[in-house]
Amino acid sequence: FPHTLLGNPISRSRFWNTATEEFFFDRHRASFEAILYIYQSNGVVKRPEAVPLDLFLKELKFFEMGDDIIESFWMSEGYEKPAEAMMPQNHFQRKVWELMEYPDSSVWARITAFISIFVITTSIVSFCLETLPDFRDLNETMSDTGLVERSRNWSNPFFAIECCCIIWFTVELMLRFLSCPCKLTFMTSFLNIIDFVAIAPFFFSLVWSDSAKNSSMSFAVLRVLRLVRVFRIFKLSRHSVGLQILGKTFKASIQEFCLLIFFLAIALVLFSSGVYFAEQNEPDTKFTSIPASFWFVLVTMTTVGYGDLTPTSVFGKVVGGACSLIGVLTLALPVPIIVSCK
Questions:
Q1: Is the pTM of this model over 0.85?
Q2: What is the full DSSP assignment across 260-318?
Q3: Most buried pick, 128, 131, 287, 330, via CB within 10 A?
Q4: Do 261 and 189 share a structural domain?
Q5: Which domain holds residue 48?
Q6: Where mainly found (predicted)?
Q7: In which element (H, E) is residue 158 found?
Q8: Rounded to an integer, what distance in angstroms lies between the CA atom of residue 88 and that of residue 168?
Q9: Which tens digit of pLDDT belongs to each residue from 24-83?
Q10: Is residue 83 part of a domain?
């Protein structure tokens, strides 16, 4: 390592003590032993357990170990080096991309991010308020077939708010798409897929309602499309680092979640069978089958306990108690593993 402080004779010469005829570094001793081991092991970085991370990193920088050694240090600590962000080559595209994608790049980018958050919140609040009984008559009318259809006119304030929000979402998505450095990466990004899903139902509902009127099937499709609007709440994750970290935690813990669901499925079948056979001879029992017992076992294992289904026999109560205990253990054990994957 000729470019480091210890490897470069010129750099280390200023630490030469002529009185004792030795090099003297007034630095942290335990960290120095680990840094010296890097030379002896040809680049193996291993931080002593008793040395804090920030202190060891400070010592690495003092001894000028270089970016490669520091990167190896971060990897040994379980940190991944963030990928270098791709930027458009065109100057105008770069400015637009930074404006829409990096809120901390300028004051205008912060204002754009604030407007986006405000529009998303307004859309979600409007979606919730229009289902209130006081506003439902304003938002819905009766069709010729007796089916309830949604009113689409500018006199309806909810429809006007929806159109304004859709205009903002569409312009935002188009600007981001036109200025992005890689179109394929943009289209496969999870956050961009959410942005598309947030606006697509509005245009689909306009086309569908005009081409398939007075049909029960068309109204069912429109209800499903309106339900998809609730996914707009995930657009807030673009502006929240905490939500993005939570999503990455779930992604890193997908195997643990699958294992948890597998254990819950096994326990669901076992305890449903047990409580069914325990209660099948009881008068007016609600445990009429094993599938009918799934609900009781599910709410018991998750410690919700609605109380709509309760065993009455002694053996049934024993099964219910064991189900509750196993449920607590099953749900609690994977938590440390999931937290460690953050």
A1: no
A2: HHHHHHHHHHHHHHHHHHHHTTSTT-S--SHHHHHHHHHHHHTT---SSS---SHHHHH
A3: 287
A4: no
A5: 9-76
A6: membrane
A7: helix 157-179
A8: 23
A9: 888 888 888 888 888 888 888 888 888 888 888 888 888 888 888 888 888 887 776 666
A10: no
